[in-house]
Specification:
It contains 13 helices and 13 strands. By secondary structure, the chain is an alpha/beta fold. It folds into 2 domains: about 130 residues, 3-Layer(aba) Sandwich (Rossmann fold), CATH 3.40.50; about 160 residues, Glycosyl transferase family 10, C-terminal domain (Rossmann fold). The strands form 3 sheets. It has a 6-stranded parallel β-sheet. A 5-stranded parallel β-sheet has the order 9-8-10-11-12, with helices on both faces. Strands 7-13 form a two-stranded antiparallel ribbon. Strand 1, helix 4 and strand 2 form a beta-alpha-beta unit. Bound molecules: 2-acetamido-2-deoxy-beta-D-glucopyranose (2 copies). The site of one 2-acetamido-2-deoxy-beta-D-glucopyranose has 3 residues, from loops.
Length: about 375
């Protein structure tokens, strides 16, 4: 029976003699050659047709559970293999992480390389490839349906040369909207109407003692942000913290420290389209201070945050004018408060956990395109 069914479901067509044979064996009729016919030919043809019809019905029935509500075939569980952990820092994948932590079912996140042949997606974080601490397993067979994913949350100038990756990756995962899987550093979400303060809420109700603060770990005098800082501190005081000035702030105290400042310099290390990091979402917004941003153009910020929630360096003709504006704004309580109006109905959602980012691939898995990046460097530019 099983054999008969599987042939019915897999082969395209059956010639009539074949069908007649199946019909006979199923109905326990003795096998007959055409010469020994004892049943009128017409009845045999009808038996065959009836049987064929029944088979078609059975075929439709057995294929039903494989069709999801949207009507497309979907594998029961998608396996995402992390070839190595970003920054070589592993996290627990015990239990059904995607379901348990993020409510996403049918999504298996693994970091065991022996599961390679079962993986639907294999993830490679760029940082370790660039530093040569990890290599692509180019010697392994690549099955037709398995896809290799290139993951980087760095701005293009910091990714280095990508020319050697021509024709290797099928999917890209990055912060920008041109990636197959877009994983922003953060976003604004509508606030729950409960009135209770959520984790994304800010700490603004404290006295501000410092005008402008900046936390910088990687100070490079060639960065535009360094030149802006040098000019700004000629006009107004700027409190600098971080590794660059040997004033490291523990993560647990960072937001508290920043919340004492009227303004926070959310200066990105590169001015690349859509490259807006936790410097805005966490350091500034969650600390309840007003970000002064330097990075992509204002329109990129406005695409993700209200226009009156930040001050853009490009809004001013000179850094001196920016400094004078900040000083004046800090004394105009009503106007200063207007920069926090968005807190009324929005809250900050931060993305920091690699597991959350990767689990979120599964719900969009079916919509991911099939392609190969022949020129990753051109794409990432
Ligand atoms: C990885 O998977 C293989 C095969 O399923 C298993 O034998 C092995 O114990 C696993 N390794 C780890 C570290 O879990
Ligand atoms: C703010 O400062 C004033 C005056 O120094 C003080 O009375 C008040 O308690 C402070 N408020 C907070 C929330 O620290």
């Amino acid at each position: 029976m099983t054999l008969t069914l599987s042939s019915c479901c897999t082969s395209d067509q059956h010639s009539e003699p074949h069908t007649a044979y199946y019909a006979q064996s199923l109905l326990s009729l003795p096998a007959m050659t055409s010469g020994q016919s004892c049943i009128p030919k017409l009845t045999r043809r009808w038996n065959a047709k009836l049987f064929l019809f029944t088979l078609v019905l059975i075929c439709i029935f057995v294929s039903l559970p494989r069709v999801s509500h949207s009507g497309s075939y979907r594998p029961k569980t998608i396996t995402i293999l992390l070839w190595y952990w970003p920054f070589l820092t592993p996290y627990s994948l015990a239990g059904d992480v995607c379901l348990k932590s993020y409510g996403i079912s049918g999504c298996r996140l693994v970091d065991n390389r022996s599961l390679y042949s079962t993986a639907d997606i294999v993830v490679f974080h760029h940082h370790e490839l660039k530093s040569k601490r990890q290599k692509l397993p180019l010697h392994l067979p690549r099955s037709g349906s398995q896809r290799w994913l290139w993951l980087s949350l760095e701005a293009p100038p910091n990714n280095g040369n990508l020319r050697e990756y021509a024709g290797i990756f099928h999917l890209t995962m990055s912060y920008g909207p041109n990636a197959d899987i877009t994983v922003p550093y953060g976003k604004l979400m509508p606030k729950e109407k409960s009135g209770a303060a959520g984790p994304g809420d800010f700490i603004m109700t404290r006295n501000k003692t410092d005008l402008v603060c900046w936390v910088v770990s990687n100070y490079n005098k060639l960065h535009k942000r360094s030149r802006v800082y040098q000019q700004l501190k000629n006009t107004i005081p700027v409190h600098v913290y971080g590794r660059a000035v040997k004033q490291q702030v523990p993560q647990t105290e960072l937001l508290n420290l920043i919340s004492r400042c009227y303004f926070y310099l959310a200066f990105e290390n590169a001015e690349s389209p859509h490259y807006i990091t936790e410097k805005l979402w966490r350091n500034a917004f969650q600390a309840g201070t007003v970000p002064v941003v330097l990075g992509p153009p204002r329109r990129d910020y406005e695409a993700v945050a209200p226009p009156n929630s930040f001050i853009h360096v490009d809004d001013f003709d000179s850094i001196d004018a920016l400094g004078k504006f900040l000083k004046k704004l800090s004394t105009d309580t009503e106007r200063y408060k207007s920069y926090f109006a968005w807190h009324q109905d929005s809250t900050v959602k931060l993305y920091t956990d690699w597991r959350e980012r990767l689990c979120n691939i599964c719900p969009i898995y079916e919509r991911l395109p099939y392609k190969t990046y022949q020129d990753l460097s051109a794409w990432a530019r």
